[in-house]
């Protein structure tokens, strides 16, 4: 996801606590990478795997890796001409 030097810059401000890692409709992220990082932290804190099933310039869809036992899904769309992304749809109650 990151080159070595870039990872060090990003890691300096990453908070792995559960304090603000909720996924909900309307939540915004400054960049696409911030959204991806937040999803990773969310999954780590809840101990499950996810994958991006759709990955376009203007939107991303992430789903639980094991569709048979987990129906978790989040859809985020780019906001206008900005670099921000907003969660537009979220099914975050996993059936695990």
Compact description:
This protein has helices at residues 4-11, 32-46; strands spanning 28-29, 50-55, 59-64, 73-78, 85-91. With 96 residues, it is of the alpha+beta class. It has one domain (24-91).
The N- and C-terminal alpha carbons lie at a distance of 27 Å
- What topology, given as strand order, has the largest sheet? 1-5-4-3-2
Mean pLDDT, as a whole number? 81
Estimate the global geometry from the Cα principal axes: globular
| N-to-C SSE string, H for helix and E for strand | HEHEEEE
Radius of gyration: 13 Å
Q: What is the number of strand segments? A: 5
Largest sheet: 5 strands, antiparallel
Low-confidence segments: none
Helix vs. strand class: alpha+beta
Number of helices: 2
List the helices and strands and how they pair.
Elements: H1 4-11, E1 28-29, H2 32-46, E2 50-55, E3 59-64, E4 73-78, E5 85-91
Antiparallel strand pairs: 1-5, 2-3, 3-4, 4-5
Could you please describe the fold and organization of this structure?
It is a single chain. The protein is of the alpha+beta class and 96 residues long. The chain is built from two helices and five strands, in the order αβαββββ. Strands 1-5-4-3-2 form a five-stranded antiparallel beta sheet. β4 and β5 form a beta hairpin. The longest helix is centred in the middle third of the chain and has 15 residues, at 32-46.
């Amino acid at each position: 996801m990151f080159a070595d030097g870039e990872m060090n810059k990003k890691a300096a401000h990453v908070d792995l606590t559960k304090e603000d890692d909720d996924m909900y409709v309307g939540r915004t992220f400054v960049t696409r990478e911030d959204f991806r990082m937040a999803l990773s932290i969310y999954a780590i804190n809840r101990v499950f795997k996810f994958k991006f099933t759709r990955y376009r310039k203007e939107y991303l869809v992430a789903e639980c890796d094991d569709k048979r036992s987990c129906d978790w899904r989040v859809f985020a769309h780019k906001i206008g001409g900005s670099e921000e992304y907003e969660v537009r749809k979220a099914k975050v109650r996993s059936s695990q």
